[in-house]
Amino acid sequence: MSGKYIWKLALTAIIVAFCLSYLIPMSDQDFAEHVTERSGSPEFTALMERAKTLSEESSEGNRPLSVYMALKKIANDERIDISDYFPDLQLESSLTNIEKRNNILLPTLLEDSKANLKRGLDIQGGISVTFEVDPTALAEVPVDQRNEKLSDAINIIERRVNTYGVSEPIVRPVGENRIELQLAGVNTKDNPELIDTIKAPARLEFREVHPSADPRTDPRPTGYIEMTRVQDDTEREIIQKYYVKRIPALTGKYVDDAFPRTNEVGGIEVILNFNDDGAKLFADVTEKLGSITQRGAQTRSGEVGLLAIVLDGELQSAPRVSERISGGNAQITGNFTQREAIDLANTLNNPLELPLEVVEMYEVGPSMAKDSIESGVKASVIGISAVSAFMIAYFMIGGFVALASVVLNVVIVLGVLASFNATLTLPGIAGIVLTVGMAVDANILIFERIREELRNGKNIKSAVEGGFGKVFSTIFDANVTTLLVSFVMLSLGTGPVKGFGLTLAIGVMTTMFCALIVTRVLLELIFCTGTLGKFKTLSLFTGSNYDFLKYRKPAFIASWCLVAVGLAVLVSKGDSIYGIDFTGGDEAVLTFTQKIDEGDLRKALEDADIGEANPLYQSQLGTAEELLRIQTGFEKGEAAVDALVAAFPNAGFDMIGKNEIGPSVGAEIQKNAFLSIALSLGLILLYIAFRFEIGYGIGAVVATIHDILLTIGVFVLVPGHQFTAPMVAAILLIVGYSLNDTIVVFDRIREELLLKPTMKLREVINVAMNAVLTRSLLTSITTLLASVSLMVFGKGVINDIAFTFTIGIITGTFSSIFIASPVFYFYHKGDRRSVESSHDIIPEYDWQVGSKQSPTDAPSKDQ
């Protein structure tokens, strides 16, 4: 076997092995079994049995201890160093405190027992925590500022949660003084400190320490209070007491940024950067304390200037100040672990002004109903089977190659996501769907190019090489434009926008790798080594000669008229078109004696014409009590309860509470979604103008805007549809698909302009669109097979997303032919010289795969 095949196969094998190492195990393992097996020590096995017994027998408050917390309790109470049983996990030898060592090691073992690729709230459920603002603190806030303060608290909680790798949490207001937080993949029984960290106020204060008075011997001076600091970095606790001023010299409101850092001696500290006002105040107080220290050294009075750093009423440290510090920064030193330092920095960067208390904690089921998930899995299997059958039937051996490449693509995407400890949610799955669509499209492009080369009389080896050489720029440009979109979403997006952007960014790079490396080496092994001599496929629309531009004006006008009608209907419907995710609504809380399947509940609510309604079962943590929550539009909660009582008289439904809930897709997510799309379109315009020419860029942007608006218009024209959170992902999906389709057409126009220097622009565009017609139809067919399967066999939100994407596929294909290309044609007024004066050469890359064109392969402009 040739060396050029071996290195490609070896590289592919290494990448796939890396990804599988992160994907296995696919699901969480039992913690006790995992650590017992990993340790292999009989002594640890006995310790684990004690932890299991304690877990079964003990309780803390009203919550039973998990096995993990029971093990932690036994180890810390009895001063057992868990690291003795896990010599492969190295801890710093300087960290001698056993509790600190256990608090670092045990979370590592717990995380190691979990699957790297987590599932989101919409797929697996999680926990729901309701915080209530301290009534006394809220009473001090002016009435007209309370909603703003509550909104600020919601944004702060969301930012804090995101640092824990919890993707797309739901944070929304409930009533007038409560905030609901829903987290996926979080077990508070194993991590009880998490909720306390999330709701910590982070009141940071810098206070002067009395220069000479000692609490152990001297009475308390006026204006000072006594504070204690406990150091426990060794086996022996060191207790230090100070008199500190009641009134702080400056507070955390002057801190611009905080971050953890390892200092020169290997310890962890938190660095603070002050704003301009804070830098001045800090310089003034350190100058004062520095002069006290210098005076005390000169007079030998024992006076020393200390600056106490106090967080939420607890003394963190009291460093000596020797001189004025004017750099605008400070550091908090202490016995921090890396996680503690990160938590502290995160909390300081997002300080809560309003104190919060936990009033409810529940386990919640997936926000996407069980019947929707099951139907989605079934529909996906049907769709994948249909796409596979079509690819094999049409491209024969090429179809098998394409499917192998696409499967590896998906494995690599999931593996890379798992290596980031990402959480897979519905928007992320939408990104994977788009990745699969791009991967299939790339393979179809390759196969169609190879067929063209064969029709031009080349042998199979030359056809494979030439096909890859000519398709490279198309695949490169299509994927780079999509990558620009994903980078913007990652930078600006929050919630579903960011989740989609991450998956898409990974998918773009894996698609290029699989199409240009994996597909190529498989085809070369099959055809270029003589295994097979013919590349057989079916033929569709080969040699077509349609005058597409002839119909550009009526198609353009009709399409935009439909857009206008859809937008008019959207405006006329007002807020009624938006679902609970965008507007909020009522939430009724019910007890029951007989549990009814969520699918049956949803059907009963649909029959009663309640509108959008989301039934969710929740069980209170630590108890067997289970409640049913029904989320509806405003003023429909009681009607929903009446409908369920009538439909299921033996279920014993009884409403015990009702709240108004806020939107889960807040204003910030909506704003960032629009901003991401707008900035993406701007970058696409610049990129295509640079790589192609400005007329192409304008055509691509207009076509993408058209597809978004037309899809929304058709969506609202069809009765029974509302915009929900997953619709954000569906719209983003359409942006990616539309761009990919348009770039393919434009790249062919650019190529035909080079190959046909005497042909008029109108004819060139028609030739190019006819040349890619087969590819466009095949891509649309394969993508439609998947989306229509989801639309027909899926339920609930799966059906809505599939319906939206189906519209997007049709509009994307239509716009590439009747919007993007005509706009490009209009921009240049039908004159190819206008294009040539700007840019019409296909760029070559030093790393381009395949043979380069020689100067004689194509005619020059002057020919």
UniProtKB/TrEMBL annotation:
Residues 151-210 form the Protein translocase subunit SecDF P1 domain. The keyword Protein transport applies. One of its GO terms (molecular function) is protein-transporting ATPase activity. Residues 240-349 form the SecDF P1 head subdomain domain. The chain crosses the membrane at residues 6-24, 392-418, 424-447, 468-492, 504-533, 554-572, 673-690, 697-718, 724-746, 767-793, 805-827. SUPFAM superfamilies: Multidrug efflux transporter AcrB transmembrane domain (SSF82866). Gene3D superfamilies: 3.30.1360.200, 3.30.70.3400, Multidrug efflux transporter AcrB transmembrane domain. It is found in: Cell membrane. Keywords: Cell membrane, Membrane, Protein transport, Translocation, Transmembrane, Transmembrane helix, Transport. Belongs to the SecD/SecF family. SecF subfamily. Belongs to the SecD/SecF family. SecD subfamily. HAMAP family: SecD_B, SecF_B. Forms a complex with SecF. Part of the essential Sec protein translocation apparatus which comprises SecA, SecYEG and auxiliary proteins SecDF. Other proteins may also be involved. Part of the Sec protein translocase complex. Interacts with the SecYEG preprotein conducting channel. SecDF uses the proton motive force (PMF) to complete protein translocation after the ATP-dependent function of SecA. This is Multifunctional fusion protein.
